[in-house]
């Protein structure tokens, strides 16, 4: 048990200690009132600057403390409400937040390029600088998009008001033309897709530990290789990656295809090709894919059927026969066309290898063709080995169409007529006529 003398000796020390502790608490409280504590999120260091909100001609200012208090109590709609600095752009960011947003933007670009390790490292660095950098980045991107759309809308409005109604309607039908780089052109939906491609595209290996030889080849050499392929192979190469797609849009590749494919009789004259190219905004890929042309690398086949009544020994029995026959049309670049009518005993597998100008077969005719827009005119169809020469020749008119299975792969018969030596034209009934469908043949040249 402690004596009363010891209690009196310890009492002054306890009192002094209590007074010192109270004084320390009092000083901390005063310091806390003069210097309010920052928000646990480090983003407030970038957001605690003075924010000016325009509310009229004079405007009003909000102090640092009120701005911090408003941001330190997130409500249920904070996720959908833009931060105050988002309306002013990156110029209003604090140095730390601006640097974090720039690092975040670089990380997004690296992720789009496929450089995932670099992207992950920069994402971590950005979030260490500012935990809410993603919100600031997305609001800044949205602000830039709104500014861009408002400028484009204003320009479009001025253009629309400066032309007549007919010209404005015609302008709406023209696809969007996008030049992605020098020599690279795209239009329509493809242009919109390529517009979101990142810069400095390269070929990347499927596995990071492996190299890729294609990356070592210069673009100029790759273009020379692509110019020696056909259009189908070029488009298949374009499906490999973004870099391949951009390379496949080089105008020199498609210029070669256009000059090979569009010659008379595909077009009225050689001089008319320049007008055709100009009508497609000098985009040779659009010319090759949208300008009608007959396919020479295959044969057009029509499968026709009709029902014929047969003979029967009994009156109560009707014999009906389904007759199948094929029509073939093969076009050549010099304007020659081969036409063959063959029964079902001659299957396409047997006919296509022998369908040449030297063929001697019943129902075989040779004539000339000319493409006028999307209409094919075939004239002077006659048997080349008939002796004496027939007094009749035939002519056909067909419409060229594109269907989902391919380009310019359907020919629909518009008329089929016979012409005698006196010039009299007799049309044939098209009761059993069926459209021709294109079938590609690897051994046939395309131009």
Provide the descriptors you would attach to this structure in a database record.
single chain, 447 residues, alpha+beta, eight-stranded antiparallel beta barrel, 15 helices, 39% helix, 22% strand, disordered N terminus
Layout of SSEs?
Blueprint: H1 4-34, H2 44-47, E1 51-53, E2 60-62, H3 64-72, H4 95-113, H5 116-129, H6 133-161, H7 165-172, E3 177-181, E4 184-187, H8 188-195, H9 219-226, H10 231-238, H11 242-248, H12 251-261, H13 272-279, H14 284-290, E5 298-309, E6 320-331, E7 336-343, H15 348-351, E8 364-372, E9 375-382, E10 392-403, E11 406-420, E12 425-427, E13 436-440
Antiparallel strand pairs: 1-2, 3-4, 5-6, 5-13, 6-7, 7-8, 8-9, 9-10, 10-11, 11-12, 11-13
Helix pairs in contact: 4-5, 4-6, 10-11, 12-14
Give an account of the 3D structure.
The structure is a single chain. Helices cover 39% and strands 22% of the residues. The protein has helices at 4-34, 44-47, 64-72, 95-113, 116-129, 133-161, 165-172, 188-195, 219-226, 231-238, 242-248, 251-261, 272-279, 284-290, 348-351; strands at 51-53, 60-62, 177-181, 184-187, 298-309, 320-331, 336-343, 364-372, 375-382, 392-403, 406-420, 425-427, 436-440. An eight-stranded antiparallel barrel has the order 5-6-7-8-9-10-11-13. A two-stranded antiparallel sheet has the order 1-2. A two-stranded antiparallel ribbon has the order 3-4. With 447 residues, the protein is an alpha+beta fold. Helix 4 packs across helix 6 (133-161), helix 10 (231-238) packs antiparallel against helix 11 and helix 12 packs across helix 14. The protein is elongated, with a radius of gyration of 39 Å.
């Amino acid at each position: 048990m402690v004596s009363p003398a010891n209690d009196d000796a310890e009492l002054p020390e306890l009192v002094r200690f209590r007074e010192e502790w109270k004084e320390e608490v009092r000083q901390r409280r005063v310091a806390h009132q003069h210097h309010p504590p920052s928000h646990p999120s480090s983003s407030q260091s970038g957001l605690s600057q003075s924010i000016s909100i325009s509310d009229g001609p004079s405007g009003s200012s909000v102090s640092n403390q009120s701005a911090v208090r408003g941001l330190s109590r997130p409500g249920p709609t904070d996720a959908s409400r833009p931060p105050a600095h988002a309306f002013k752009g990156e110029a209003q960011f604090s140095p730390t937040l601006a640097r974090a947003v720039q690092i975040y933007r670089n990380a997004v670009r690296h992720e789009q390029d496929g450089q995932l390790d670099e992207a992950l490292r920069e994402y971590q660095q950005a979030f260490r600088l500012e935990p809410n950098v993603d919100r600031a980045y997305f609001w800044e991107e949205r602000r830039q998009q709104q500014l861009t759309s408002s400028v484009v809308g204003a320009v479009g409005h001025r253009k629309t008001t400066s032309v007549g109604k007919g010209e404005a309607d015609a302008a709406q039908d023209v696809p969007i033309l996008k030049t992605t780089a020098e020599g690279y052109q795209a239009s329509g939906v493809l242009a919109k897709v390529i517009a979101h491609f990142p810069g400095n595209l390269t070929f990347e290996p499927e596995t990071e530990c492996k190299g890729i030889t294609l990356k070592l080849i210069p673009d100029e050499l790759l273009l020379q290789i692509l110019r020696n392929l056909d259009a189908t192979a070029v488009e298949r190469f374009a499906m490999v990656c973004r870099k391949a797609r951009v390379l496949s849009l080089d105008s020199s590749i498609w210029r070669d295809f256009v000059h090979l494919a569009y010659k008379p009789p595909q077009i009225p004259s050689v001089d008319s090709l320049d007008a055709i190219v100009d009508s497609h905004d000098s985009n040779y890929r659009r010319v090759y894919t949208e300008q009608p042309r007959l396919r020479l690398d295959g044969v057009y086949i029509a499968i026709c059927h009709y029902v014929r009544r047969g003979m029967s020994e009994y009156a109560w029995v009707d014999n009906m026969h389904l007759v199948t026959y094929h029509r073939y049309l093969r076009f050549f670049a010099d304007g020659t066309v081969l036409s063959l009518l063959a029964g079902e005993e001659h299957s396409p597998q047997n006919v296509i290898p022998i369908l040449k100008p030297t063929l001697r077969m019943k129902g075989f005719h040779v004539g000339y063709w000319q493409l006028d827009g999307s209409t094919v005119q075939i004239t002077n169809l006659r048997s080349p080995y008939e002796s004496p020469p027939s007094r009749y020749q035939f002519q056909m008119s067909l419409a060229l169409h594109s269907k989902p299975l391919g380009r310019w792969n359907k020919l629909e018969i518009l008329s089929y007529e016979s012409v005698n030596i006196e010039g009299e034209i007799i049309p044939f009934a098209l009761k059993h006529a069926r459209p021709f469908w294109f079938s590609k043949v690897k051994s046939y040249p395309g131009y």
